[in-house]
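> example.struct
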């Protein structure tokens, strides 16, 4: 019998002042005045056999440097659900942007799963261009290089299996080597899109996020995710506050902080 998993979304920060125009590559006039907050999440995939972290978020130091604000660091969110950072053995880094790969040093016992294309992109000639390197933080990229040299990185080239029932899929467009994760759950497949899809509106309206290095690849990735998930409703975006409205809280006391994604969608 195939393994199935629980999936938890852990919110550790937000930006309630963000405008809609900041979330689309080609905003409409209405977008400039419309409020469209962004949430910051890490995700946990687990069953009785294993616990896998998806992305490591960023810390208060990085938040200050970027003019962002987070409520707490991701390790605090993990401790809320009983997970100590040292117990994490497997982490999937969807891509190396600052808000997804910022606290890797706090997980000393983890192996990291990354696309080869993302490592090449983040350390290659494109980073000579200021507009291309802005979403990356050099210290984060250097930390991943250190992880490589300590034998703690599992590279994937396209599709790859992380564990039975958990696969990664290269889905470029936002970054060169960004990957989405397909997870088997008791309610069927769920695709954690990360920043392949920031908001439901990006994929529902086919309007990519404003940081997009390849528009055509992004739109193709949208189609691939929908196919893998067995429908649009099973694709989970990376930053949308609607996640917390469309899926139930893990426990009553974690409403707005930890929500369960391996459950039927609300409404």
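> example.seq
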């Amino acid at each position: 019998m195939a393994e199935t998993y629980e999936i938890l979304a852990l919110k550790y920060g937000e930006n309630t002042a963000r405008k809609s125009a900041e979330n689309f590559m080609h905003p409409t006039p209405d977008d400039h005045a419309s409020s469209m907050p962004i949430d910051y999440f890490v995700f946990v995939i687990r069953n009785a056999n294993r616990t896998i972290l998806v992305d490591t978020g960023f810390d208060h130091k990085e938040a200050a440097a970027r003019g962002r604000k987070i409520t707490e660091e991701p390790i605090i969110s993990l401790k809320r659900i009983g997970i100590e950072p040292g117990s994490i053995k497997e982490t999937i880094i969807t891509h190396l942007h600052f808000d997804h790969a910022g606290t890797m040093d706090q997980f000393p016992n983890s192996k990291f799963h990354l696309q080869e294309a993302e490592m090449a992109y983040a350390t290659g000639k494109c980073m000579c261009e200021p507009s291309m390197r802005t979403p990356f933080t050099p210290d984060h990229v250097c930390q991943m290089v250190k992880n490589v040299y300590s034998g703690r990185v599992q590279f994937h080239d396209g599709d790859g299996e992380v564990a039975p029932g958990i696969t990664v899929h290269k889905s470029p467009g936002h970054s060169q080597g960004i990957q989405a994760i397909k997870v088997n759950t008791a309610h069927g497949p769920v695709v954690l899109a990360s920043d392949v899809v920031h908001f439901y509106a990006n994929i529902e309206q086919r309007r990519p996020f404003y940081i997009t290095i390849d528009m055509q690849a992004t739109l193709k990735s949208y189609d691939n995710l929908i196919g893998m998930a067995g429908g649009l409703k099973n694709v989970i975006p990376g930053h949308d506050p609607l996640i917390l409205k469309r899926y139930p809280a893990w426990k009553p006391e974690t409403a707005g902080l930890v929500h369960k994604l391996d459950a039927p969608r609300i409404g």
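> remarks
The two ends are 30 Å apart (CA to CA).
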